[in-house]
Amino acid sequence: MEIFSWLNDQLLKMEWLSDLVKLLVQRVFQLPIEERLGGSIHFFIYDTIKIFILMTVLIFFISYIQSYFPPERTKKLLGGIKGIKGNILGALLGTITPFCSCSSIPIFIGFTSAGLPLGVTFSFLISSPMVDLASFLLLTSFFGVKIAAIYVIVGLILAVIGGTLIDKLNLGNQVESFVTSGHSNIDGQIEELTYKDRINYSVEQVKSIYKKVWYAILIGVGIGALIHNWIPQSVIETVIGENNPFAVLIATLVGIPIYADIFGTLPIAEALFGKGVEIGTILSFMMAVTALSLPSLIMLSKVVKPKLLATFIAICALGIIIIGYTFNSLDFLFS
């Protein structure tokens, strides 16, 4: 256990990096980190470097795994499985795919065009930006294994239930005709990649995702530093503290307009956690950002009709709110 604790502290939490940044702030900037300005600079530099290191390693590793699951193979895995088993498999496959909702939607279109069950594709669409190995390891580095595991489990449950409900509502006619009538090349022969091909693919994925999210990470860390060091505890408690019965609703609504993935969301969640915000409220905020970001909903509106889009939003939002209030009621387990 001591070895595991040391590995967690040094590899995931990167306490060595925190100590180095502390020395930098105190000796180079001549600022005590106990004060607002010094603490903000420490938070920003430490979290930014930490997230970019973890992001590089995790994206490369997960992209390498993902190279074994091209759309053709994924269709073969999902094509013959229907019902709850298909939803579970769709949700699980979402854990090894892109890191933001806007990246997941083109794959969702491909799966739908290929004739996969609508419920299965929506289970994939919900889980893909919200839950993956990266989110688990990142959350572990910030909050510990217990909270990380809870986030992944409830995210998968939401994806399975959401996809199942959409399947039961028989909304197949609510997909735009150009998607369902298009000829997909997803049935093509699976190309076997060499070790070098997989390495190159993983490197390109790292570069591609860096280009998409670097600014969101900097904004997220900046907001986190602001919350952590400049916004008074009393303000946080009034707006989304445990005494506000609408805290989960507020966190969910605030999260939806924000476009970020798990990497950009974590610094804000970390700062809120440090201010004593309940875990359910934080989970709701993170899930709303990753699953229901406004840009991704705009993209999705181009391929599904209003009724299906509204159903998707309602199911996800209701599920996120229920999860938030449920875990707030069990907050004593995580304190």
Automatic annotation (TrEMBL):
Signal peptide: none annotated. It is found in: Cell membrane. The chain crosses the membrane at residues 43-65, 86-109, 115-140, 147-166, 213-231, 243-260, 280-301, 308-327. It is a multi-pass membrane protein. Keywords: Cell membrane, Membrane, Transmembrane, Transmembrane helix. InterPro entries: DUF318, UPF0718_permease. Belongs to the UPF0718 family. This is Permease. It comes from Mesobacillus jeotgali. The lineage of its organism: Bacteria, Bacillati, Bacillota, Bacilli, Bacillales.
